[in-house]
Design brief:
Residues 1-22 form the signal peptide. With 136 residues, this protein is mainly beta. Helices cover 14% and strands 50% of the residues.
Length: 136
Amino acid sequence: MSPKTLLLLPMLSVVVLLSACAGPLPKADPSQAWIGLKEEAPNDLMAERVDGKRVDDGRYFEVSPGDHRLDVTLFEDEPGDDNQQDCQGRVEYKHFKAGEHYTLEESSLGTTVRASLKDGHGKEIAATQDFNCMPG
């Protein structure tokens, strides 16, 4: 192999790895409740745990009907600042329904960061308290 090819192989493997993470979301299981995540740019909101157990894919939650606690991490970028804050938040909701689609939506106002759980009609049904943020 040429030296040029040897240099391209590691770069190609990184591109393949990153594209797998950004692949399409799986189809929602109709026997489960689906919770999508929505953040304000340039922040990233990631699913972390359901009822204390780690989730397999940080882009969404899928839970059985009923009562659940959802833990999320918000990676908050400050405009014009290279520092990032890692913020932990939690929302609890007792009435998840099979086949329903919910959205956990992050919002910031000044130094206050929160997330609202909205049903399929966009109605807020639960919310986090303030996130606990630490410099990243």
